[in-house]
Amino acid sequence: MEKRYFVALLLAAAVVALTQLLFPVPRRTPGSVKTASQTIADSSTASSKTLAPPAPVIPAPAQPHPADSVLLSQPEQVTTLATALSTYRFSNVGAVPLSISLNTYNNLSPRGGRVELGASGQPLLRYSIVANGDTIHLNRTSFQLHQPDVTAGGNAIRYAADTLGFHVVISYRLVPNSYVAKIDGQVTGPAQNLFLLIELPTNLKPAEADTIADLRNLAFSFKPERENARIVGFSRLDPGEQKLEPGPLTWAAVKNKYFVLGVLNPAGQSFNEISLKGGPRTSKVATSASATIVKSLKSGAFSLDLYAGPQQQTQLISMGRDFDHVNPYGWRFLQGVVQPIAALCIQLLLWMHQVLRLSYGWVLVIFGILIRIALWPLNQSAMRSSMKMQEIQPKLAEAQKKYKDKPEKQREEIMKVYRDAGASPFTALTGCLPALIPMPVLFALFFVFQNTIEFRGVPFLWLHDISIKDPFFILPVLMGISMYVLSAIGLRNAPPNPQAKMMSYMFPVMMTFILANMASGLNLYYTAQNLAAIPQQWLLANERARRKAKT
């Protein structure tokens, strides 16, 4: 039995490697087109400094640009707009959204209230304009507020300002029954080569009971046009470390465990690049980092979609542009394999929840049982192949020993043993294939449970939230016990094998420790699978006993 597991692991590695060879991720084609940073740098030697995003120690109000300080002639005006799903607060200083509250999601951290997307002491976005190598920071510019457009249901707002010879207009329109705001802008002035810089927030407020886990999920995500979406966790950026990711980019976002704020381009448009920089750390957990998006302005105009809401599959898919990959599943080298399976698993779980009208806990139990039933024929064939190999093993050993000095005759006798038993040298390998099939699903579910908001706060039996670990560690222990029982039944009436017996003890203990701190829903799924597999193992153990009695 232990050989089958080792062969299965080798085959799994081969499947991953073969997938990458057959379906390679497209690479960027080097060309002569300069990045936005290089273009701006050519305009002025000082401009390379302006492209570097800020590295705040603690989010604080931005320092005024020397030429902008005179523009604060009006006090700050905060305007609130709302839809059924979200409440937005806008400021005329910088013409930016200050915060966005999600009306249907409770903050599970000690602070309570509603989930609010916003960073302490800073707006959600900051704008700057680069013209002729000079940077005009709009975060200290007082814009003239145009009252909400009544014809749009009061969900549209427009800001305008004149600064350093440029006329800047930025408007927002909230889309009803969604988490989307449409951003339109126009920059009019003497310069021709204009770039818009958009700074994403340096953090997002924790919204989960496990605040540390929420902070550990802080990351920037972006989608190159010709590659899979990529993610860079705050923890992957050392303090002060800078990374430049060239475009063209379809969208860029900042996220925590369950919520995301993303800026998306309309079809046919793109960002030139995104610059990332690690923030200072006061603990082992990275709580701040900065990202600046660069967009070339053609004719001075720009249009963007701002998504600020949950990482809910249906909402993300409705955005298009592969925004449902904002939280890529699988490590980069496994993303091509895990992402499609994870997406399929989520769709199946959501469909079962909707059709069966059961809680997600029971859906996971049923899902685990159905997966095991679907694999029943394959497992049946594999286990019978294993029994057949165990039966002919003594004959193979005898032929190898008898004709060890006659290789030609040895091969003939070995093939004769296989023919008489109705087997082949590949029987052992084909018996390992069913062990490979559940592995991608297990990998996919590992990532699904980390960020699927549909499981957030869902209770089941003694569990108050299946998306976090079992506080009493009951499920991991049950999972380990069920795995041991499954292995023990599988060894019944089998030839003595000390190594297999040792693995029957070690593997359940190892898996119990690995899954102890993972989502309780994952343990629930795995436990249901193990229990559903016991009847099949019991029947095959009895079949093995009958075969043994005949011989």
Residue windows where pLDDT falls under 50 for at least 5 positions = 1-13, 15-33, 43-72
Fraction of residues in H or I helices: 25-40%
Mean pLDDT: 80
- CATH topology heading of the largest domain: Beta-galactosidase, Chain A, domain 5
Major pleated sheet:
14 strands, antiparallel
Task: Please characterize this protein's 3D structure.
The chain has 551 residues and is α+β, with helices and mostly antiparallel strands. The protein has two domains: 215 residues, no CATH class; 296 residues, Beta-galactosidase, Chain A, domain 5 (Distorted Sandwich). It is 39% helix and 23% strand. Strands 5, 6, 7, 8, 9, 10, 11, 12, 13, 14, 15, 16, 17 and 18 form a 14-stranded antiparallel β-sheet that branches. It has a four-stranded antiparallel β-sheet with strand order 1-2-3-4, with no helix packed on it. A hairpin with a 4-residue loop joins β2 and β3. The protein is elongated, with a radius of gyration of 30 Å. The N terminus is likely disordered.
Topology (elements, then pairings):
Layout: H1 2-22, H2 36-43, H3 47-51, E1 78-82, E2 86-91, E3 96-106, E4 114-117, E5 126-131, E6 134-137, E7 144-146, E8 156-163, E9 166-174, E10 180-188, E11 194-199, H4 211-216, E12 219-224, E13 230-233, E14 242-255, E15 259-264, E16 271-278, E17 289-297, E18 301-310, H5 313-319, H6 335-356, H7 360-374, H8 376-402, H9 407-421, H10 427-436, H11 438-451, H12 474-491, H13 498-515, H14 520-550
Antiparallel strand pairs: 1-2, 2-3, 3-4, 5-6, 5-11, 7-8, 8-9, 9-10, 10-18, 11-17, 12-13, 12-14, 14-15, 14-16, 15-18, 16-17
